[in-house]
Amino acid sequence: MKALKYVFVCFTFVITALPTSGQELAIDLTKNAVPITANFIGSELMLYGASESGGDILVVVRGPNKNQTVRRKKKSAVIWVNDKEVTFLDAPTYYFLASTRPIGQFLTGDTAQKEQIGYPAMALIVKGAIDDSIIIEDFKRAFIRNKQKQGLYGEGPGLVSYKGKHLFRTRLKFPANVPVGNYNIDIYDFRDGKIINKESTVLPIQKKGIEAQVYNFAHKHSLTYGIVAILVAAMAGWLASVMFRKV
Amino acid sequence: MWITAGCGTEQRLVQIYLPIAEISVNIFLILGMGGAVGFLSGVFGVGGGFLMTPILIFIGIPPAVAVATEANQIVASSVSGVLAHWKRGNVDFKMGFALLFGGIIGSSLGVELFSFLRDLGQLDLVIKLSYVVFLGIIGILMLIESINSSQQTKKREPVKRHTHNWMHGLPFKMRFRRSRLYISALLPISIGLLVGLLAAIMGVGGGFIMVPAMIYLLGMPTVIVVGTSLFQIIFVTANVTVLQAVSTQTVDVVLALLLLAGGVIGAQVGVRIGARLQGEQLRGLLALMVLGVCIKIGYDLVATPIDLYSIGMAGH
């Protein structure tokens, strides 16, 4: 209820803040950061906004880019072994696309390509030389399919809904296995197949509190971390033997 | 994979996000696993790493994290175990150091190999294959032994010590007073080396290999075998923990702490109950469990994968 009220207040704010040029697009998020804490099980937030034109809205969320490798298994004797591999340079670790209608209905191929909207337009650049027997398209499809299975890639027409003529909203979901980093959120306002407005915002998803401390310790002072880990374990083992001897 | 359906508060209470494994797990599941494997190690006097690591992998912990974290947990259980043996004087330190010398070399090589295989994309395969081979061998041997002794068909011959064979022609002979042995130092060093290698790659202490090797190969008296092997395991797994922490950053202390909290309690209960249970039938049961895990891992390697393609992080 509280969240709804907040959304409502924000909506009102957005409406009153709209100038009268007829082209405005304004957006906001119900959270300005997603902290990964010890009890993190994924997160959901609302993106809402107002478009004066009331056109088609498209929301694209991209997670931090990373080199990611897709491997294909091959049967060798009786077992399945990783065989050929393709590494995609700086591919988004997270990708989510929401729109008011199926994008084919209001988006031209050229615009999709230019703005990298949708899987076909996603720039998956192959690292290094690969041998001729590899069909890149298969690896690209497999990459997207596996990402979808992990809940990290998704798209959905109809996920952006209008409330009235100008107010719209969509729900953004981040599963528990979400990669940390800065998420770029782009919101497009389409009219007659053309982008008439674009807004962008950044949503940081970071480990917080004890999660961040342990992670940073493990990565920045890994030798000390390793030594502390064995000391803690040795202490626990010693404590256990002392405690239970007296019982 | 873990896709959360909702964000209910009751779910939040039992879930914990592991900072290194980067997944959310149920606290009670992890404590329960620690307890169950600890219980088995208490009953049978086995380390339990060879059961815990595959179970961690089954519930979705990345294999690299499972192996490195389990090494850390074994440090705790071995310290707790060695103290009792030390008090009774059942540790041959000289032998322990010889085993350890090999163990440090083996485990250091093992961690190098581990990183190399990870970058190559073959780490999971090698871990799983090692498990199939070793669990298969151990499970079958244990099953045979339990069937034999429960049927009482065979009176076991006492192990003959000091039989002279090729091993006694090896150089660098050393006297191990506590074990009453005069053998080449190369023998315990090579046993230690092999076990260290396995410890690094499989996330086990390696007692299940070392103990039989010490009894049957070296001819050590049975009473000091367990204490001495635990002594070696402490330092080898400690070495693996530090090296993994430095080279792969896959040691998850939060996971290790949860596992050992469950494990410590389970082991104490296990020791008490184990003393009252019928040994041979239980041993048969453990053998079946070991074979069960072996078959499950083996089946996953042989069965046609649902998706031939998988995503991994690119090697650095």
Number of separate strands of chain B: 5
Strand proportion of chain A? 35-45%
DSSP summary, beta strand count of chain A: 13
Per the principal axes of the C-alpha atoms, what is the gross shape of chain B?
globular
Identify the biggest protein-protein contact and residues per side: A-B, 66 and 64 residues
**What is the global morphology of chain A?**
flat
Radius of gyration computed on alpha carbons of chain A:
24 Å
Gyration radius over CA of chain B: 20 Å
Low-confidence stretches of chain B: 1-7
Q: What is the total domain count of chain B?
A: 1
**Sheet having the most strands of chain B:** 2 strands, antiparallel
| Helical content band of chain A | 25-40%
Query: How many angstroms does the end-to-end distance of chain A come to?
Result: 52 Å
**Percent helix of chain B:** 55-70%
Strand content of chain B: 5-15%
| Oligomeric organization of the protein chains | heterodimer
Question: Pairing-aware structural class of the strands and helices of chain B?
Answer: mainly alpha
Report the sheet with the most strands of chain A, covering strand number, pairing sense and barrel closure: 6 strands, mixed
- How large is the count of helical segments of chain A? 5
